[in-house]
User: What shape does this take?
Amino acid sequence: MIKVGIVGGTGYTGVELLRLLAVHPDVQLTAITSRKEDGLPVADMFPSLRGVVDLAFSSPDKADLTQCDVVFFATPHGVAMAQAPALLAAGVKVIDLAADFRLKDQATFEKWYKIPHTAPELIEEAVYGLPELNREDIKGARLIANPGCYPTTMQLGFVPLLKAGLVDAGSLIADCKSGVSGAGRKAEIGTLFSEASDNFKAYGVHGHRHTPETSAQLARYTDQKVGLIFTPHLVPMIRGMHATLYARLTRDIDDAALQALFEDTYKDSQFVDVMPFGSHPETRSTRGSNMLRLALHRPEGGNTVVILVVQDNLVKGASGQAVQCMNIMFGLDEATGLKQVALLP
Ligand SMILES: NC(=O)C1=CN([C@@H]2O[C@H](COP(=O)(O)OP(=O)(O)OC[C@H]3O[C@@H](n4cnc5c(N)ncnc54)[C@H](OP(=O)(O)O)[C@@H]3O)[C@@H](O)[C@H]2O)C=CC1
Ligand SMILES: CC(=O)N[C@@H](CCC(=O)OP(=O)(O)O)C(=O)O
Assistant: This one.
């Protein structure tokens, strides 16, 4: 059994990890931390876990995380970088759901996250945890930088086109929408029911930290200079993310060949569903599951490809993806414990 620790077990990605890992056949939940709820049985806070998780939260300074085989950090940016060096030295693998190790350029990280990096020596070693594009590197990794939720949709949509040299990498556009759980469980005015429900707005239009993360990753798949305009929106739903991606074709290709390119790219990726050409994927077709679904369009047969991508921000966009990485790191089938079908309605 893989002994698992979770730092930040009271947040949305933390409890999502608990939901997935509590029934994972190869996992033994060993330590779950919370600074505020030290000593409280996990199931007292989350009755959905009654009879499934019998651990109590412990404060991060009391929890002995070195007894774990792997520790997930479901915490704000800056927490994993403080603890990862000691855990790695003790032989514990680390999967960070935050951004501490996603950007290879320290100055870019510090500019966007506005905190100093305290473990720069680990940045190079960290492996970006997007299995569909990086599976081989994840196999041997000790430290995983789990991707952001929006960047997962943008990369899985754009990369096949960039790799094939079919589009202008300098004029990519991503118009994305997220459910409110994407902002986490902490109290904030913008996510109050009376602010976020029956409302719809863009945010971060002048610049969002997921732009440098996505651009840096996309640049690995093209020789062209990447230019990405990314606009996130908050939609009045709890879970779910929808990305509408636009790319300009620079070479002639017919619809069937475009579709075949995506089907071929993801033929060994059980969590990417390439839907029939012209489909309209819905967020609810991924709710609670680790599936990402996408569909291609070519409005009026012109030279713009529109890629529609949906996922559950808390599963494929965060905790499910992290468990997928753990499975790969420990030599398990990638889908172990991740076969949930989406909830409908
Ligand atoms: N929500 C989403 O859809 C996604 C989130 N992410 C990233 O995952 C991470 C977690 O997000 P989310 O679950 O939404 O956040 P939440 O705000 O819901 O939860 C944060 C958790 O971290 C704990 N925590 C906060 N500060 C510290 C600290 N200094 N040391 C130890 N524990 C701490 C909190 O518990 P306590 O205060 O009791 O210790 C809480 O359990 C973030 O970095 C986020 O950017 C990534 C992809 C998608
Ligand atoms: C709706 C909402 O607020 N979403 C978050 C992104 C969540 C995520 O992926 O976060 P990290 O990259 O910070 O880990 C945001 O835009 O800040």
